[in-house]
Design brief:
By secondary structure, the chain is of the alpha+beta class. It has 2 domains: 41 residues; 88 residues, Lipocalin. The chain is built from 2 helices and 9 strands; from the N terminus they run H-E-E-E-E-E-E-E-E-E-H. The chain has a 9-stranded antiparallel beta sheet. The termini are far apart. This is DUF2850 domain-containing protein.
């Protein structure tokens, strides 16, 4: 009788461990698939183009060129790794993270939110011109 109870306990613990490991694997896989679906639904190509700083003199306006695989500022590639989730654009340059928030659903305006000492608004030049016609 004691041996049968011990075998049942071992089987129960084995099944519980198997269920726990399976649940963790499913959760990790779900997270991976969610991230893949999110990037497919919010493609980077919707923000590709020249972003021009607003509310400053034209000669002082900064232009950020977002390409498929890079961000270019003043003719220099500052990073080849950036993230866009449909609302936030973020990248890192020299250990400083720059994060922008899209101001509208058509992704034609964005505002710098970090670093927060200056929060300029940028407008996507070609896409904005097409939207006002």
């Amino acid at each position: 009788m004691i041996v049968a109870k011990d075998k049942k306990k071992i089987v129960e613990w084995s099944l519980l461990t198997f269920a726990l490991v399976g649940t963790i694997c499913v959760a990790v896989l779900y997270g991976f698939l969610y991230h893949k679906a999110q990037s497919a639904l919010s493609p980077k190509k919707s923000i590709i183009g020249d972003w021009v700083e607003q509310n400053v003199a034209h000669y002082a306006a900064m232009t950020i060129e977002i390409r498929k695989n890079a961000i270019v500022i003043h003719g220099h590639t500052v990073t080849t790794d950036y993230d866009f989730d449909g609302v936030y654009l973020s990248y890192e340059v020299g250990g400083i993270e720059y994060k922008y928030k899209m101001a509208d659903n058509s992704n034609t305006e964005m505002k710098l939110i970090t670093p927060s000492y200056y929060n300029p608004v940028y407008r996507l030049s070609g896409k904005y011109k097409n939207n006002i016609r």
